[in-house]
Amino acid sequence: MRWRRAALAALPMFTLTAADAIPHHAFSPVYDEHRVIIVAGVVTEFRFVNPHAMMVMDVTDEGGKVVQWTVEFAGRLNLSEFGWTAGSIKAGEKVTVTGNPTHTGSARIFFRRIVRADGTELLPGNAQRLDTIEEQRRRRRQGTQQQ
Amino acid sequence: MTCRVLLLGLLLLAFVPPPAGAQTPAARLDGMWSDPPVTPEGLFCFFACTDTGLARLNALLDDPANDARPFQQLQAEAKQAERAYIRDQLTPAARQRYPFDPADDPGFLRCEPWGTARQIFAPHQLEIRPRGADRLELRYGEWDGLRTIYLDGRRPAARAPSAMGHSVGRWEGETLVVDTSGIAASIIMLPDLQAMGEHSDELRIVERYTRSADGGSLHLTATLTDARTFRAPLVLRKIWRWAPEQQIAPYDACERPTEFKKGARP
């Protein structure tokens, strides 16, 4: 599976908020929140641990060389709020990961979205929270208009 | 069959917040709490917030001109106003180092657990449990941090400041009031990981924990006093949701960073 990078800067869905941040330290020293890349590969390991869950994947580059990428997530203490378990991602799965690259351009990415081979998605918990808030605002506006 | 019905009943009871006034004050806070209710206020105060920041957020949300703007954008604008307010509350010396460069954070660099001034605003799980008649334990999912609150008023003999300091608690009606001092100089959420500051070992924190009338949320008002850091006492707020389904998992896989960039502020 080939890997690809894309500069998708300034997409609103990838703007960081406090609730999005890595739990035990700030995000900014390692990752560039203003850039987004996409990497596709095969999962070799998923560790559902604190303070950060980690996934390792084999990514075949354009020259046919297999490069090991690390995908970093929020911690188990955060992901468990949204029903994630150690079995949420399995070794052998083909996945496409969208996320923030490191400042140095190393083979490491901070998770923003995973799309599995069957098209199902894994998203950070805060995306679900924001959807709920927008729905609350929409209903409130509707209620105001009906009065 | 009877056993199954009984088990189901017990399970349901565990997920229903106890009604107000039905318990002793200590029992009303006892149990597991976690991330705040999904409301604008809950999200805004995910780590901590100020009344000034909340007022700004509510003004933005109430303005019909902002109806088409995403919540995230309004939240960011209110947080910016909040940071300006906090900056104004700092002494000139503290202001020079605010916000603290997160690349200098010992929790990040050396996997050093947080002190009280950060731990009390940690997101995710907070478990409150009585330990005997004279103390409470507050255990946090973040860092698996543990605090002991002494309810018998005991004060330690003079000793060097420590990361968690010394906490004495009392009940004012149904509100738990915790007074903490003797905290070693460290880092503080002002009001979150994107905007941290430093405090001195003169910091004193008075926390007031109150459960909502419907039992579904826990509200903290923390007053921070430190003449070397703040020009006047600073009040921060935080909210948790009643979360008996949550568990505190091991916190044993912290890794020191292999790469990072200084000065990369959000």
Strand content of chain A: 25-35%
Query: Helical segment tally of chain A?
Result: 2
Mean pLDDT of chain A: 86
CATH class of chain A: Mainly Beta
- Output the radius of gyration of chain A: 17 Å
- Within the largest sheet of chain A, what's the order of strands? 1-2-3-5-4
Average predicted confidence as pLDDT of chain B: 91
- Stretches of chain A where pLDDT is under 50 for at least 5 consecutive residues are 1-14
Distance between the termini of chain A: 56 Å
| H/E element sequence of chain B | HHEHHHHHHEEEEEEEEEE
What does the largest sheet of chain A look like?
5 strands, mixed, barrel
Tell me the CATH architecture of chain A: Beta Barrel
With strands numbered from the N-terminus, the spatial order across the biggest sheet of chain B is: 1-2-3-4-5-6-9-10-11
Oligomer designation: heterodimer
Please bin the fraction of helical residues of chain B.
25-40%
- Sheet-strand content of chain B, in percent, reads 25-35%
Please tell me about this protein's structure:
- The complex is a heterodimer of chains A (147) and B (266).
- In chain A, 18% of the residues lie in helices and 30% in strands.
- Chain A has 147 residues and is an alpha+beta fold.
- Chain A has a single domain, classed as OB fold (Dihydrolipoamide Acetyltransferase, E2P) (Beta Barrel), CATH 2.40.50.
- Chain A has a five-stranded mixed barrel with strand order 1-2-3-5-4.
- In chain A, a hairpin with a 6-residue loop joins strand 1 and strand 2.
- With 266 residues, chain B is of the alpha+beta class.
- Chain B has one domain.
- Chain B is built from eight helices and eleven strands.
- Chains A and B meet through helix 1 and helix 2 of A and helix 5 of B.
